[in-house]
Amino acid sequence: MRIDFSYDGAGFFGYGVQKDLRTVQGEILRVFNYLTHSKVDIFVAGRTDAGVHARGQVIHVDLTPEHVARLEDPARLNRALPEDIRIHSIQEAPYGFDARFSALWRRYSYRVCDVSDQMNPLTRHQTLFHYKRLDIDAMNQAARGLMGLQDFAAYCRPRDASTSMREVEKLEWHREGALCIMTVQADAFCHSMVRSLVGAMIPVGDGRRSVDWPGMILESKDRTLSPEVMPAHPLVLEEVGYPEADQMLARQFITRTKRSPDHG
């Protein structure tokens, strides 16, 4: 079964289960295990860090027909789940579907407000307040050097038996009034990659760094030169893209071959 859902990450210590800590996966498993009277396993498109939100997260779960009957109603699940997690749809997945390995891409957004008298305290849990005006054109110019299939070792926290090769398909900023919004889409993301990209481009936008600085960091492949990892609360997993139904299994094989297991 494929399950699409969203959550407000402010009250969680990340997605993945951690002992004695409140997590998104932990809350979902608590409800699923209670309703099925058994232990189930769920698999996610991409684990998010503490404080990161999701508007378009995806999991899959293998269920018996009996368990499907107990979990197929989103309204029933939402009544049992806390209010900071909402399930939007549950459907039988195509043959070969894997929430993580069948994915073609993940898309994130990051919101920054750079006009001090328009900084809304009601949105402070989803927005970074920056007290200097940002040059969107300069940040987009810097973003061009970070596109394509490249080694993002300088932008990722290292993990054993994983690769930092990623293909960034889209990376751009646009302005909506006082908000500067970054959209980034890639086949996958390694740990802290998106927030490190933001940390490289904001100094370009406010004039502290040149437009070629983020690209120079990328080329160095040196994590010690990495920019600041920006706060998690403005980061949102917006959507996960998948191929046509008959390509799910083939996509799994491609993804598993391209890289070792790691966090999206």
Automatic annotation (TrEMBL):
Keywords: Isomerase, tRNA processing. One of its GO terms (biological process) is tRNA pseudouridine synthesis. The keyword tRNA processing applies. Pfam families: PseudoU_synth_1. The keyword tRNA processing applies. GO terms for molecular function: pseudouridine synthase activity; RNA binding. Residues 142-243 form the Pseudouridine synthase I TruA alpha/beta domain. Gene3D superfamilies: Pseudouridine synthase I, catalytic domain, C-terminal subdomain, Pseudouridine synthase I, catalytic domain, N-terminal subdomain. InterPro entries: PsdUridine_synth_cat_dom_sf (IPR020103), PsdUridine_synth_TruA (IPR001406), PsdUridine_synth_TruA_a/b_dom (IPR020097), PsdUridine_synth_TruA_C (IPR020095), TruA/RsuA/RluB/E/F_N (IPR020094). Belongs to the tRNA pseudouridine synthase TruA family. NCBIfam families: hisT_truA. This is Unannotated protein. It comes from freshwater metagenome.
